[in-house]
Amino acid sequence: MEKHILSILVENHSSVLSRITGLFSRRCFNISSLSVGETQDPKHSRITIETYGDEFIIGQIQKQLDNLVDVIKIIELKPCNSVYRETNLIKVRADSTARAEIIDTVKIFRGSIIDVSQESLVIEILGEKDKNNAFIELMKPYGILELVRTGITGLERGIKTLKDYKDY
Question: Which CATH architecture is the domain 84-153 placed in?
């Protein structure tokens, strides 16, 4: 089973996300990561789904999603011609003895410290999942108090947009 990233342009209506996730659920397809947001046109939202399966399963998912009324376009974002990112917010225990080491590590990973308290730091890390996972592993010895991940999101490289694709 290999990883696939699906990018879906949909009408921005209530219950669209519910219908899409319901389709996955009814057919026992797993969603590893889900990211949804409004596009440059407020009438549309873009849904990015990370799932696993072979080419046949992914083809079936795409065909079934394409049959939903509110789905405008769906493509697979291939790693060779796409960029993916995920944002992580991590609250780490940071007493005075560990604080300098944590700050140095955040700088190496090009992260940001977005909140400081006497005993903790909230850190923002943006990047590919493997990079974020590596940072999280480095923070574990300090004590991760809370962690939240946005889920993967991505765009295809170049001038072509999702709307430029023909229906399949």
Answer: 2-Layer Sandwich (3.30)
- pTM score: 0.85
Is 132 in contact with 86 (CB distance < 8 Å)?
Answer: yes
* Angle of the 16-26 helix axis to the 55-66 helix axis, nearest 10: 140
CA torsion sign for 53, 59, 60, 65 is positive
pLDDT tens-digit series, residues 21-58: 999 998 888 999 999 999 999 999 999 999 999 989 89
Given CATH 3.30.70.260, say whether it is the number of domain 2-76.
Answer: yes
DSSP bridge pairs for 145: none
Q: Shortest CA distance to 30 belongs to which of 52, 58, 46? A: 52
Give the whole-angstrom CA distance, residue 117 versus residue 155. Answer: 36
Tokens of 28: 């026992």
